[in-house]
Amino acid sequence: MGPPSFLRTSWGGLTSMLLLCCAHVCLSIPDPRLRDRLMQEEASRQIGGQLLLTKSELQLSEHLLRLKEMEMAQPQFPPAMHFFEARPFIQRSPIFSLLQKMPKGAALHVHDFSLVPVEWLVKNVTYRPHCYVCFTKDQSVHFVFSDGDPVTQHQCSPWVLLETLRAKMGNATEFDNSLIANLTLFTSEPGAAYPNQDAVWKKFEQAFMVTLDLVTYAPVFKDYFYQSLQELYLDNVMYLELRALLPKTYELDGRTNDRSWSLEAYREVSRQFVAEHPDFLGTRIIFTVHRGLRDFEVKDLVKMAISMKKEYPDIMAGFDLVGQEDRGRPLWYFREALSLPADLGVSLPYFFHAGETNWEGTEVDGNLLDALLFNTSRIGHGFALPHHPVAKELSRKMGVPIELCPISNQVLKLVSDLRNHPAAVLMSEGHPLVVSSDDPSMFGSTGLSYDFYEAFVGIGGMKSHLGTLKELAINSLRYSSLSPQQQEKALHLWSGKWDKFVSENLDQKPNKEEQDRK
Ligand SMILES: *[C@@H]1O[C@H](CO)[C@@H](O)[C@H](O)[C@H]1NC(C)=O
Ligand SMILES: *[C@@H]1O[C@H](CO)[C@@H](O)[C@H](O)[C@H]1NC(C)=O
Ligand SMILES: *[C@@H]1O[C@H](CO)[C@@H](O)[C@H](O)[C@H]1NC(C)=O
Ligand SMILES: *[C@@H]1O[C@H](CO)[C@@H](O)[C@H](O)[C@H]1NC(C)=O
Ligand SMILES: [Zn+2]
To answer: Is residue 469 a contact partner of residue 102, using CB atoms and an 8 Å limit?
Structure first.
């Protein structure tokens, strides 16, 4: 491995330079050449630090650097602000518009029902016929589609047909806005709305349950997924690995479809989307179950995952556990269930969320090491990884990347100023890492570009450059669950898009935006 020999040459060089310096000029100012060399060495260790950039890439990188300098000079630095307040500033950022155009590769950490802006759920889905609503005591709602009077399953007011309700209102804009507020965490006053982690997670799970009412209606389930792919495609993402609960879906007459129906729906919609967009590569599914379940329940679900993997090898990528890590059960609790595949001699790749916590040394904090012991293919978040030297070393040695989701970590209150995100350490030492967005619609973002902005401008700071972005995009394909041949094909397609992106954005007069901003 690199470090030992690397250190040897570097320190050898350092000592001889020190000797040289002292022999000739005995000033106590450190040798500037030595200083340059050390700085270069440090720069070369970061993500993208080893890539040789073309002349055009270097030129675009210079342009990005100038844009960053201007961004830093503004009174409001978006990565230092809460995303809900930073969003309008980011939307005006010329770096952000470049990132939107940039081919970003794959989305490797996003969840099934958080990919489409919630406005679509309200303005499109709740306007469909047969949609009923009821109101709960805790300021929330439930929905159901039904061709007769719905059967009540929730603690809720009597069901009303939305069409009837809206007709009585005349102007339903305010009502629709209140429904939108039920489906997302986004609010203009995040500090007041979410005083602590438990409060924000409570709202998260509440909004999720409301979403579930709508998206588990079978026709909506397919439309929602098509719309999800559309969102990613428009953001220049070319492949998706979706963490999916594969819930039962329901029909208008109350009949339900099982989990295989959901998996087949994903496969069918994804194939259709690829047929219409040949430069999109498709979808693979990571089956997720809640970490609040008991071990025997998870054991059954692992068995189910094994058989789904056998039946749908092209689309099933593997297995993961979801839900608030600090309140859920640790991976070690599920050790018997998670050992099943190895015991049975079958393969079920894991993609565990781990280390999404601030609580050092708790049982949950042990998830990072356990995820690695269970041979996880990637680590969701790994926010706590820099606190665990052994886990960090293992993750590097095993080539297990962190899926960094900066906005999620900020909104769910692990860190407030993104310049202080622990992944800054990982990025500067070139730790395997990909950028993703977790639950964009919950956070009022879309696709991957907002998270790339935070990672590039906030976490990477002044030293991350076009090479950083290039390596992050390449990583997303290299660390995907695609086969080596599929990866080559994906990288080939991506690299054509990348070259086009670089050349097209060079042609813009580099000083245009700078002048506009002055
Ligand atoms: C809702 O979205 C579907 C596509 O998923 C589209 O066909 C339909 O026209 C939309 N309806 C409304 C009311 O926007
Ligand atoms: C409905 O109400 C909103 C504000 O609540 C207003 O902005 C909008 O213009 C109204 N629409 C109509 C058609 O009156
Ligand atoms: C959810 O919608 C209901 C119905 O309009 C509304 O009374 C309630 O305030 C909304 N909840 C939130 C958190 O906005
Ligand atoms: C993890 O991988 C190692 C090496 O391939 C293997 O020996 C071990 O059984 C695996 N563990 C599990 C839990 O799958
Ligand atoms: Zn997640």
So the answer is: yes
Total number of domains in the chain = 3
- Note the ligand closest to the C-alpha atom of 108: 5
Q: Which of 169, 173, 176, 180 gets mutated to test ligand 2 (max ligand atoms within 8 A of its CB)?
A: 173
The per-residue pLDDT for range 283-296, each reduced to its tens digit, is: 999 999 999 999 99
The per-residue pLDDT for 325 is: 83
Give pTM, 2 decimals. Answer: 0.93
* Domain co-membership, 374 together with 480: yes
349 lines ligand 4 (CB under 6 A): no
278 and 170 share one domain: no
Residue nearest to atom 5 of ligand 2 (CA): 174
Q: Which of 223, 226, 229, 230 to mutate to test the pocket of ligand 1 (most atoms within 8 A of CB)?
A: 223
Ligand 3 centroid–CA 113 distance in Å is 20
pLDDT tens-place string over residues 205-236: 999 999 999 999 999 999 999 999 999 999 99
The helix (H) or strand (E) run that includes residue 110 is strand 105-111
274: amino acid identity, one letter = V
**Residues 114, 26: one domain?**
no
Query: Tell me: the pLDDT tens digits for 452-468?
Result: 999 999 999 999 999 99
In a domain, 70, yes or no: no
The catalytic site residues sit at: 356, 381
**Mean pLDDT on 419-428:** 98
Residue whose CA is closest, atom 13 of ligand 3?
182
- In the predicted model, is pLDDT for residue 60 greater than 90? yes
